[in-house]
């Protein structure tokens, strides 16, 4: 039991300090495509489930259009 406690106490600082550089985006450093462009390319691929990405993009576009229309009508 003491061995596990000692191991935990030694590994905790190593895990906490070992993160390295963090990035806010999951994209590669030289990537010039926007998230929408990547999703569009994915939706057109033959990967299983890719059609769901395309449908989700169409639904999001439709919802955004409705919100814009409602905002333009509101006083």
In one word, what is the shape? elongated
Helix content: 55-70%
Largest sheet: none
Into which percentage range does the β-strand content fall?
under 5%
> What class do helices, strands and sheet pairing give?
mainly alpha
- How many beta-strand runs? 0
Radius of gyration: 23 Å
Q: What is the count of helical runs?
A: 3
Low-confidence stretches: none
**Separation, N- and C-terminal Cα atoms:** 69 Å
Order of helices and strands: HHH
Give the averaged pLDDT, no decimals.
Answer: 81
List keywords for this structure.
75 residues, mainly alpha, 3 helices, 65% helix, elongated
Structure, briefly:
This protein is mainly α and 75 residues long. The chain has helices at 2-17, 35-43, 50-73. The protein has a domain at 33-75.
Describe the protein:
Helix content is 65%, strand content 0%. Helix 2 packs across helix 3. It is elongated. With 75 residues, it is mainly α. 0% of the residues are buried. The model has no long low-confidence stretch (mean pLDDT 81). The protein has 3 helices and no strands. The protein has a domain at 33-75.
What is the fold's blueprint, element by element?
Elements: H1 2-17, H2 35-43, H3 50-73
Helix pairs in contact: 2-3
